[in-house]
Design goal:
The protein has 13 helices and 10 strands. The protein is an alpha/beta fold. The protein folds into 2 domains: 221 residues, Alpha-Beta Complex (2-enoyl-CoA Hydratase, Chain A, domain 1), CATH 3.90.226; 54 residues, no CATH class. It has a 6-stranded mixed beta sheet, with helices on both faces. The chain has a 4-stranded mixed beta sheet with strand order 4-6-8-9. A hairpin with a 2-residue loop joins β1 and β2. α1 runs parallel beside α2, α2 runs antiparallel to α11 and α12 runs parallel beside α13. It is globular, with a radius of gyration of 19 Å. The relative contact order is 0.12.
Length: 285
């Protein structure tokens, strides 16, 4: 089964993230496929990215949080940046049709798109410091261009959830419509774009990317910092808390805790993850 469904509707390419069981969180294969499809959709006039089920995109996905592999994580971080760069450098306007949850890297995917239309049930927000990570590919830097520095830090630091109407009020999305009108509204925006000059739309898009381009070093530095934190206590604890559905107990440097993960923590989380996978396998039988 494909991770992303490509549907051509006239001159509009609809790219549908298709892992609803995990709220369309993407792994490296899924991110690479979406990037390839955005690249391949240059023969369309407008590109739309949306999700299947009740989620738009819940960010990056790893099938083994207990034993993080540095090389694989580094590749996932780079995959995310390459995906966002492909959206930004595509000659075609890219619209995020936000049908549901946009969290973590999914919220950053909305930021990377040129325009965003949200269903009323959609929610938005970063998750980084709450789960032992950081939104370094837009959420902690470029987002300030859209919503202002103080509001961007509120999103990045506090990891709150925001409604679609709140997202529109702060400038994260362009419009909000009832859920059953999302596709029709996105189609209206796409039709309006299709009536314009493709050549001068591309020139306008390239010119409007100035601020994004100026943040490129920040994205690269962020990836390097996240890579150095792989396997830290806070990363492992964030994963454990997420699996156990409890508040995380992060290291507190002012109490003399250095944040290094112990072997026992890794083993405990690996056992919990294996048990969770066994339960899921039994439910599918």
């Amino acid at each position: 089964m494909s991770d992303v469904r490509a549907e051509r509707r006239g001159d509009v390419a609809w790219l549908v993230l298709d892992h609803p069981e995990r709220l369309n969180a993407y792994d490296r294969a899924m991110g690479d496929e979406l990037r390839r499809l955005v690249d391949a959709s240059v023969d369309a006039g407008v590109i739309v990215i949306t999700g299947s089920g009740r989620g738009f995109c819940a960010g990056g996905y790893l099938d083994d949080l207990a034993n993080p592999d540095e090389d694989e994580l580094r590749k996932l971080f780079r995959c995310s940046l390459e995906l966002f760069e492909t959206i930004r450098t595509s000659p075609r306007p890219v619209i995020a049709a936000v049908n549901g949850v946009a969290a973590g890297g999914g919220n950053e995917l909305v930021v990377a798109c040129d325009l965003a239309i949200a269903a009323e049930s959609a929610t938005f927000g970063q998750t980084g410091p709450r789960v032992g990570s950081s939104p370094v590919l837009g959420g902690a830097n470029f987002l300030a261009q859209s919503v202002g520095e103080k509001r961007a830090k509120e999103l990045a630091f506090l990891c709150r959830r925001y409604s679609a109407h709140e997202a529109k009020e702060m400038g994260l999305v362009n419009a909000v419509v009832p859920d059953d009108e999302l596709e029709a509204e996105v189609t209206r925006w796409a039709d309006e774009l299709l009536a314009l000059s493709p050549r001068y739309l591309e020139i306008t898009k390239v010119s409007s990317n100035t601020a994004w381009n100026q943040h490129r070093d920040a994205y690269m530095h962020g990836i390097a910092l996240l890579t150095q934190a792989i396997g830290s206590h806070d990363m492992i604890e964030g994963a454990k808390a997420f699996i156990e559905k409890r508040p995380p107990r992060f290291a507190r440097p002012w109490d003399g805790q250095n944040g290094a993960a112990s072997g026992a923590e890794r083993s405990e989380l690996a056992a919990e993850r294996a048990e969770q996978m066994e339960r899921a396998a039994g439910e599918r039988k």
